[in-house]
Amino acid sequence: METRINVKLEFNRLVVDINELEFLDKSLNKVGPLVDRLTRELENEEQKIKLYKLKGTYSDNKFRLAMLIRGVSLNEIYKLKALPISDNVTIVGPITFIEKTEEQHRQAQYYNDLLLSREQTLDAIKQALKRLEYVNPNDLKFSGVTVLEWLDMNYIAKKISAILKLG
């Protein structure tokens, strides 16, 4: 027994995924340059400031408490901020630099999430197009689609497929 394809449902999914892809592309075009700019700013600023790398993972509060115990003045402590960057490394630097680093990391993570989502959406579009390639008259009857509607849908699906092959 062969599986029926709901042509209307597949085509509507295709349209929704195309709209999603358009939104993701616009978002990537906004976030990408922002991440690049923040990265350049951090690289330039990193050369001008003093950063310290500490062994161990310290939260900002643990770092400040440790500095107080060691007798460092409050004025000096409040100018610095700690940022754990891996399991056993913490960097310490000026508050503004560390906050910019955190912001750049958040934006870069968002950009990576958008890229992954775009890739998944493209895969979904390709799968929908592949399913629409194998539509037979029984599928049209099952979906309640007329031949004229199917011709329009098929034309649009072929155009989308051609655009994806070019891009």
Notes on the structure:
The structure is a single chain. This protein has 167 residues and is mainly alpha-helical. The chain has a domain at 7-48 and 96-166. Helix content is 73%, strand content 10%. The chain has 6 helices and 3 strands. The protein has helices at residues 7-48, 60-69, 74-77, 95-133, 137-143, 147-166, and strands spanning 52-55, 80-86, 89-94. It has a 3-stranded antiparallel beta sheet. A hairpin with a 2-residue loop joins strand 2 and strand 3 (89-94). The two termini are 37 Å apart.
What are its keywords?
6 helices; mainly alpha; elongated; 3 strands; single chain; 167 residues; 73% helix
Q: What is the helix tally?
A: 6
**Rg from alpha-carbon coordinates:** 27 Å
Level of helix content? Answer: over 70%
Which geometry do the CA atoms define? elongated
Q: What's the total number of strands?
A: 3
Q: How confident is the prediction overall: mean pLDDT?
A: 90
- Overall SS class: mainly alpha
